[in-house]
Every structure is written in structure tokens, then in C-alpha cells.
Amino acid sequence: MKSSQIRILIVDDEAQIRRFLRIALETQGYEVIEAASGREGLSQFAQHPPQLVLLDLGLPDLDGKQVLKDLRSRSNVPVMILSVREDEDEKVAALDAGANDYVAKPFGAAELSARIRAVLRAHNGHQASQPVLRCGDLTIDVSRREVTAAGKAVKLSKKEFEILHLLTHNAGRVLTHSYILHTLWGPEHEHDTQYLRVYVGQLRAKLNDDPAKPHYIANEPGVGYRMLDHAV
Amino acid sequence: MKSSQIRILIVDDEAQIRRFLRIALETQGYEVIEAASGREGLSQFAQHPPQLVLLDLGLPDLDGKQVLKDLRSRSNVPVMILSVREDEDEKVAALDAGANDYVAKPFGAAELSARIRAVLRAHNGHQASQPVLRCGDLTIDVSRREVTAAGKAVKLSKKEFEILHLLTHNAGRVLTHSYILHTLWGPEHEHDTQYLRVYVGQLRAKLNDDPAKPHYIANEPGVGYRMLDHAV
DNA sequence: CTTTTTTATGAGGGATTTATAAACGCGAGT
DNA sequence: ACTCGCGTTTATAAATCCCTCATAAAAAAG
């Protein structure tokens, strides 16, 4: 079994920073593993090879640059340096040692995410890889276009997938009929509510969902539909 | 093959900055060409394709982001944004629009050079990184342009090879018709879906692949194609 | 309780998408 | 000039999906 979920290794000795990064990255759909020291980082890297490494330069045991060197000796995985040091020589040294980017602390979560996307995009070759959506026992791998419900793979048509994707992306919120229709069918079909009923019915059939006691898609009479997110 | 010298295009309306950059880059051995506006930048890009673009966001005619968009619609050349704006949203927007790096003015010449090296390294690295691609019982030797399926050598034409290469490089993911056409045929044939059908048919014939029960190339109706990666 | 609105679901026709063969134009090489 | 391979176009049958319609159940309103 291989999902296209992207794994990121954080190597930083400050637990607070690791926490902050983990939360920021997991909400983006990334899988996060941590290491509090250079040696642990290298060991983690060997055991669970990540697609990207976030590396702090100030580590207790090994120097961050040494860790980078070791990584580069065995892999060309993208490495982004996170550091408090604003020294230009430091940046140049790290970048020339093989780092793909150098972000000075403090940094915003949004900028870091965008830089991660940029680095991954450059490395994978142009196509930005999208994360895996999860909602209860439902997983949606957008780039693979694969859906599993309660462990079982479910084959969906294009429109079915679009509806499920839209609902899951806004899990918990009620999406009005007209909003869904406007988004997926276009403004001219905003009032063709029947379209939706048919497709939601097909979706529920494929997901083994009972409209009377919905596990996934719930109906809000007169308003629209919503994806249930019982305890994410 | 192009000349060994690496060409960099600077797009910035301030002559002073262009001068500063030109001096800094030429001492590093780069060939430098300049443009003072967005339109001139795009025209220069078309006439003398550079290996890297340094782009200022604040241009007199076109918006910098529009220039980036135009560049991205026809090339995946590395683009680094130079900007006085430190706004985080601005950075995120530029990076997500396809920029490879975002450097805030004022910056040091040494750091800029190092970042340029890092971006170029990452860009060149990913092409030379995998000399032979493997996916199931399919092997693709990129430099030799040789393909074997289930042990047997398969002779492919240029376009057939490009399609198979692109699909295999993103094995598992669904690549949309328009993405494949845009990448291999160019933006103007983005909607000529029939091209693809013919070539995918030829590929499947040469690979002995049955469209009804595909072993290699699977169709996602209404979306695109994907290479199957059963248990890598 | 009756009426009206909203929802669920099955089934089939029509339109779109796909697979495949085959013809055409073009340049490279013989 | 001829052939051959390749990329492009056209044509057509088959497969698939989207939409429509009909009907029944459920919910809301009167």
C-alpha cells in the first residue's frame, strides 16, 4: 500500500517549534515526523525516508551543516534550513552545502507552506502534488483521484468525485444547493436541484450511506448538504 | 546543446538595480540580458531563452505576477522574484504562481548568488537525477531513450516516448488531458484531446496493454490518464 | 388530517468520451 | 523519385457518463 501522502521530517531541538510546525503542516495534509537532534534526524531519515527535510542549524549534538552534509552524501532530498541566524555568510554556506532554501526565524506559517510547495514543485518536476484529504474513515487522494471509505476503495465518476471533493473540503459546513451547483455545473444550472439529488444518491449508494442515518453525507432540508466530520 | 555559459534575464524597471545585478552576476561568470518592462521581458525571453529569470514585481506596464503567469504558460524556467514588498500574502501568491524563490530587497549580492546557485542546482538536478525510471515491469532509460516492458525491448517514436516518460514520471497520479497536451504539444494544443487518444492507443498496442483491463496506462473518463504503479 | 413541498431512487435516452483504423502530408534518407 | 517513418487529421463504432423523467417516500405547512 502506498499513498501519495507527503512525509516531512523536522529536525529541531526546540519542542515548541516542532509543535508549531507539526500543527501547521498536518493541517496542510502532510505527514510529519520529528527529530530533536542531528543523530536522531539522520536515523529517522534512514528509517522513514521523507520527501522533504526542515532542518534547524543550531542543534545540540551535531552541527546543522554536518547533518546537511551527511544527508547530501546519501540523498538529494530537498532540505530547507530554518534558522535564527540572519548572517549572510551563514546563508551562503548552507545554500552552497546543498540546502534548497533558507528561511530565517521568525517566519509565518503561510510563507513557509508556500516555500515548501515551491521546493517540492521544483523537485518533483512542475506538477504541484496535492495533499490527501481525510474525514473520518473517508480518504480522498486528489492527485491519484482515489477514494476509500472504511478501508475499501470506491470508484467514482467525474461528477461524483467533484461533489465528494467539494463536500469533504468543507467538511462540517452546510453547502447550499445553489452553491454546489454554481461551483460544479456553472451559474446557469444554479437552480437544477434535481441534478444534485441524483448524484448524491449515487454517491451514497457507492459509500453504503443510509440517508435516514447518514454516516457521510447529511441533508439539511430546504438548504443543502454537508459532510459529517465526527471527531476528526 | 546551448553554450556552456548560463544566461540570466533581469526584468526590472530601475536601471540602478539592473546595473548592480549585472555587475554582480557577470563577475560570477553569467551572461546577463536585461529588460526594463514586462513586455520587453517576455520578448527578450522569447528571443534569447535564459536559464533563469530575475523578476521584479513592481513593473510599469504589466503586473509582475502577470509576467510570471505568461512565463509559466510557456516554460518552466526557474524564476526568482525580487521585490521590495515584504508582505507575506504577496510572497505566498508569487510562490504559488510558480516562482522558485522570493528575495526581498535589499539583499546582499552573496546571498542572491547563493540562492541562484541553489535554484539552478535543484532545477538541473531533477532531470539528471534518474537515468532509468522503473515502474512495475516497465523500465525507461531516459538518456538512451530505451524502453522495456516485461523484459522485452519496445521501440517507441519520439512523441510516444515523451508521453510514456511523463506518465511514468508521475506514476500513480492522474494527469489531465490539458496538462499532458500543454506540456508536450504546447499551450496552443491544450484542447486537442484526440492527439492523445491516438498516441495512447499506439502506446498500448506496443505495450500489449488492454484498455479494458489496463496493466500500464489507465483512463480516467473525462479527466485524463495515469500510469498504474501496482506495488512499487 | 390533508395538502404542499422537499427528497430519494430507479431506469432509459441522448450526448459525450473513448478506442481504433485509416488516410494525408511531410521530411529524411536511400 | 521513391520509400519509410512519423505526426496529424478524419471517420466510425463502442463504451461510458450525464441528464431527464417518473414515481414514491418523507418532511413541512396549513
TrEMBL record, chains A, B:
An example Gene Ontology molecular-function term: identical protein binding
Location within or outside the cell: Cytoplasm
GO biological process: positive regulation of DNA-templated transcription
Entry keywords, A to Z: Cytoplasm, DNA-binding, Phosphoprotein, Transcription, Transcription regulation, Two-component regulatory system
InterPro entries: CheY-like_superfamily, OmpR/PhoB-type_DNA-bd, Sig_transdc_resp-reg_receiver, WalR-like, WH-like_DNA-bd_sf
Keyword S-adenosyl-L-methionine in record: no
GO cellular component: cytosol; protein-DNA complex
Family annotation (Pfam families): Response_reg (PF00072), Trans_reg_C (PF00486)
Presence of the UniProt keyword Aminoacyl-tRNA synthetase in the record: no
DNA-binding region: 130-229
Entry superkingdom: Bacteria
4-aspartylphosphate carried by residues: 56
Every Response regulatory domain range: 7-120
Primary location: cytoplasm
OmpR/PhoB-type domain residues: 130-229
Protein name, UniProt field: DNA-binding response regulator
Species this protein is from: Stenotrophobium rhamnosiphilum
Lineage, top ranks: Bacteria, Pseudomonadati, Pseudomonadota, Gammaproteobacteria, Nevskiales
